[in-house]
Every structure is written in structure tokens, then in C-alpha cells.
Write a structure and sequence with these properties.
By secondary structure, the chain is an alpha/beta fold. It is built from 11 helices and 19 strands. The protein has helices at residues 52-70, 74-90, 92-103, 107-125, 164-177, 192-205, 222-231, 244-257, 280-291, 308-323, 343-358, and strands at residues 7-10, 13-16, 18-20, 23-25, 32-36, 43-48, 133-137, 144-148, 154-159, 181-186, 212-214, 235-241, 260-264, 269-273, 301-306, 362-365, 369-370, 373-374, 378-380. Helix 1 packs across helix 7, helix 2 packs across helix 6 and helix 5 (164-177) crosses helix 6 (192-205). It is globular.
Length: 390
Amino acid sequence: MSDMRGVSEVNGVQEFKYFVDGEWRTAESNKLFDVYRPYDRKLYARVAAGGRAEAARAVDAAAKAFPAWSQTAPVERARLFFKAAEIVKRRRAEIAKILALETGSTISFATFQQDLVAATIEQAAGWMYLPKGEVLETNVPRAHSIGVRRPLGVVACFTPWNGANVLSWRAVLSPVAAGNTVIVKPSELAPISAGLILAQIIEEAGFPKGAINVVTHAPGAASEIADVFFESPEIRAINLIGGVKTAKMLAKRAGETLKRTTMELGGFNPLIILDDVDMDYPVRTPTFGSFFHQGQICLNTRRIIIQRKIAAEFLAKFVARTKALPSGDPQDPKTIIGPLITPAAVKLVDDRVKEAVAKGATLHAGGVFQGQIYQPTILIPPPYQIDLAM
């Protein structure tokens, strides 16, 4: 029997199992790891600490499920996708709160994620009917060849903690829609938001056992699971949404074992502002673009390039608007700036700001933090200087 949702409460703290072959399971070691709330560092949940045994079980389950799932009629796959989207919509407020507590996402961004998740799942339901091949020319008169694309098999998906819920779905939807089965390895910083919520929803929606599996792990234990993925011939592709450091390691190992890879990594996104612009718009745009989810998304604006003629006017308005952004508890609808994901992330940001200032950058806003809330920061690199009194 499957333990619906895979969660229980012990001494006031939620404890989560991992999800394989349609069942919620306790880790073979019986170990759990702690997940802390970024805002106040209080214990939020304990989650099954999986390892090699759990990963191997997931590979077996996904491999067994693949033949039947790959032959499932498009209309049936689409029906399951639409059912999952309806569940997301029903649990919209509940999941948004989980994101706020586990990842420090503000309620506004967390709610936005749920709407995007539901829309993306519904969009993916239409992918079942996309062309699966093409007609190819041959050297034989009046003869053609037909190339047909077929599902690969089992795909291992590594999902991140930032944009956790929407990115976990985005990692899974394409391979599953194409007829593959998947194993999700969510970040240990957000195992619930980046994997276990997805498992709850696909279970309720009625996806076949083994089609989608989620294996969680404690901090520092990701390599054990990755080892199983690379060692197993059943794993045909690696799908990563994450950082460059992890991508280099996975790409190297994938090359050694001839596994396909799909990787979405970080971005360095400049915003260019020209002097014929209506000033209110370019002030609003980077205020949101730079600081939503505390600047922890690959889509965030990283650098603003602006013509000198309007630089002083823009900077004055941008600084004023940035300093007015309310920070605090991400569950408060008024909060715009919530906490960074970990104390280590706070230290990294602070070290980089101090390094920039030491090398001649001018600090116009931020540069300070309390707890894990780092105030939105504006730096102008040398040799550029802008006199706000102009």
C-alpha cells in the first residue's frame, strides 16, 4: 500500500519519505536529514536520506515502467497531465507556503510559480501530438525514407533549490511527455519543493508506478546517487538544471559513459538602457529583474549598461526605489526581499560585495544584512563614477 503524500508528523516536525515505484519508502538506513527554514533557521522538516540502494531501486523501477509508458496512448498521457495541473491549481496556496518556508521565496513569487507550473503542465499535454519524425530524401527515384524519433528510456533529472517547484516540473515534463521514465534527484536544500511535491501530485493524478520517481539525499551525499546513475546502463540521459561546477563534473562523466546530457546553467544577463527611454519603465524593470527571489535566479538582471546622458537620473531613481523595497518574512504578502537560501550564501554575497568595494566599486545601496536577509545592493564598478548631485 502506498502512504499517500509520504509525510507524517513526529514531535511537531514533518517527516518525509522518498518515492519510488509508486510507493513512499523509508531510507534503507532509516536515516533522515534536517531541512531548515531560511528566514529564521528553525527546523522545518526531516527527509529520507537516500543513497546507493535507493538510487538503484529507482533505476530498476523506472526501467521496468519504461516499456509500458513508452507505448501509452497520447490521449492517456495528456489526461494524466491535465489531472496533475488541476491538482496544482487546487493546492496553489498550500504549495506557495511550502516554498516560502523551505526556500525563502516570497509569497508573490511562490504563487507565481504555481500558476506557471499549472500552465506549463497543460502546455506539455499538447506535446504528445507533436510530430515524432520527418520525411527524408533518398537517391532512389520517387522513394523517401521516414525518420522516427523514439523515447530513449530512463532519464535522470537533477533539480535545483531556486525556482524549485517550477524547475522540477520543467525538468520532468519533456522526457515524460516523450515517453521516457524519469528519476528526480532534488537539491538537498529544497527536497520537498524540488521533488517530493511533484511526487505527491503525480501519485494523486494516477501516473503509473515507476514512471516518475524521486530520490532524496542528505547534504554531501549527492555523489552516491550520481554514481549509480552513471554506472547503470539503464540511464540513457542526464538532465541538469543547476550550476556550472556541477555541470562540468556531470558532463565529464557523461562523456566517459556516452550518456546524453541536457543542461540549463546560470546566466549573466545584462540590461541595456538607451537615452530615448521613458525613465519610469527602466527603473521598474531592473528593480524587479535584479532582486526577485533575492537575485538567486539564473534569469536575474546581473549588470545594467546605460548611456551616460541619463545615467545620473536613472541611478538616483533606481537607488531610491531599491532602498524602499520591504524585506522580512517571506510569508508576509508585503515582503519583496526575503532571505537567501543558506548562511553560506549570505557569506558568499557579502564577501563579493566587500571585494568589489575594495577594488574600487562604489556602493550606492545595500551591502548589509541581518540574519539571512541581504539588503538589495547596487554597485558601480571602477572606473565609472556617477555624481547623483548632477
